[in-house]
Specification:
Layout (H helix, E strand, L loop, with lengths): L2 E5 L5 H13 L2 E4 L8 H14 L17 E9 L2 E2 L3 H6 L6 E8 L7 H10 L3 E9 L1
Parallel strand pairs: 1-2, 1-3, 3-5, 5-6
Antiparallel strand pairs: 3-4
């Protein structure tokens, strides 16, 4: 099964988890990069509202063909109990039939969005194989 670890990291914590996961899974790895990195106030004050609403924020073109992989690991930091809004771009563009594993990283290790993400993944014709909140 060809696997891709795709992640967004603001401070570097998620990147460390993604790199270790890619190594353990013998997977390729790809970083989501913001189209324009906003200042810290907009990132957290406005970004948390976007995250809670499930609103995607613009990212640079992925530059990776998600169709080439069978399983996708999606990693993102938790902002106000939800994944950073950049990850929603990937969810909106999931090709049908993929196996998706979600890992969300925070200092508390708790999110409140498993059902929402699973619903979004299922709506794209994919299967959520696993979901994990990671305290890092």
């Amino acid at each position: 099964m060809k696997t891709l670890v795709i992640y967004y990291s603001y401070s570097g914590h998620t990147k460390k988890v993604a790199e270790e996961l890619a190594k353990n899974e013998s997977a390729e790895i790809f970083q989501i990069i913001e189209a324009k990195r906003p200042g810290i106030f907009k990132t957290f004050a406005v970004g948390t509202f976007a995250a809670r609403r499930g609103k995607a924020w613009p990212i640079q073109p992925l530059g990776v063909d998600l169709n080439a992989y069978d399983r996708l690991f999606l990693l993102a930091p938790i902002w106000a109990s939800f994944p950073a809004p950049y990850i929603y771009n990937v969810l909106e563009n999931l090709p049908e039939g993929k196996v998706v594993c979600v890992k969300l990283i925070s200092s508390s290790g708790n999110s409140g969005c498993k059902e929402r993400l699973e619903s979004m993944i299922k709506a794209k014709g994919c299967t959520m194989e696993s979901y994990e909140d990671i305290k890092a």
